[in-house]
Amino acid sequence: MLLEFSVGNYLSIKNKTTLSLFATPIKEHKETNIFSTERYELLKGAVIYGANASGKSNFIKAMSTMRRLVLQSFEQSSADELDIVPFLLSTETEKKPSFFEAVFMVDNTRYRYGFEVDNHTINAEWLFEAQKHTEKPLFIREHDGIEVMSRSFPEGKDLEERTRDNALFLAVVDQFNGKIAKKIMKWFNNFITISGLKHEGYKGVTFGMLENKQTQNTLLDFYKKLDLGFDDLAISKKPFDHKELPNDLPEGLVKQLLTDFEGAFKIDIKTIHTKYDAKNKAIGQIEFDMRSQESSGTNKLFNISGPVFDVLNDGGLLVVDELDASLHPLLTLAITKLFNSKEFNRNNAQLIFATHDTNLLNYGNYRRDQIYFVEKNKYGESEMYSLVEYKEEGKAIRKDRSFEKDYIEGRYGAIPFIGNLSNVMTEWQEK
Fold it and tell me: Which PANTHER family match (predicted)?
């Protein structure tokens, strides 16, 4: 479970910025939105609001980038770049490394793991452990080398010299079957980041869950409760057939595709609809192709439902950018409520997502410490703050306020500034 995530000097985020899932002492929705461990009360997630280009997607991308670097670090060569872009609007930061850090729990032990990285080099890396309250270092990496605490982290000894400049030491220790490293890598593997705009690639996860009899009924029941307009699903898997490729593809591309998709399968998904006669009497059923004949919202909901329920089953962390894109507000609400449900979220999974759907501020039943806002200042720096931190005339925002109304009116910031559009229209019409 995630406790905190921090990032600094990355894209539009200049200064260290932290999203915390520690529950504050406020009282609302304690029964549904909070879960308790032996040491902490934690939130089941957070929602991030902000204008277009405010930086909320950059914060989500920072989480995805940290996960990518951890899980793929060992596979890269010494010549590979790391795809890291610092905050470029200041001479103070443009040549400095980016900062990433996560604080999380595994087997009732708290870990704090992070690193500083530029496009070519891991400049610093650290791992701390706290089995009770006192934190102790397991290893610390700086420019002059890696210091391993032999009593606390013996699995890291003698691997310092095997670590490339652009590889994470944690990933190297994992490759040599380090016990603690393997636990942390597994945690990052259960830390899933997806895009609400580019969701086609997650269909395979959904398909796999529908093939599994233990998870199939859960998904089908979810679709039926949402009343998506179809009665059932017909799913088939067949080997890739090169004859289905367009005839006008270049020969070189066809050869490459044949190599890439050798042994692959094509997933075919049909929705089942009831067919009626002229007197509206049911006379049978008809199949529709999911991709071409169902709405973009239905396709998105189907594609991301696999990762959603996969995380709910595993008790992991799901991070989504633009969750509400192409979805009716009630469908977005249905997904978010799964994580605040005792029935569906029995393993304390967490959901962090960015959205423009202000309805959730009224109907999502989010606590003030779960609502975050991101806005850019005049220097192009993204700044993030939670509603529970926000002060108006020196006073905290009351829980009985209309958060949606206040946000739309600009009381909390993090909204687009729209000038006088009538002047723009007049000038355009006069041209």
Answer: ATPASE AAA-TYPE CORE DOMAIN-CONTAINING PROTEIN, ATPASE-LIKE PROTEIN
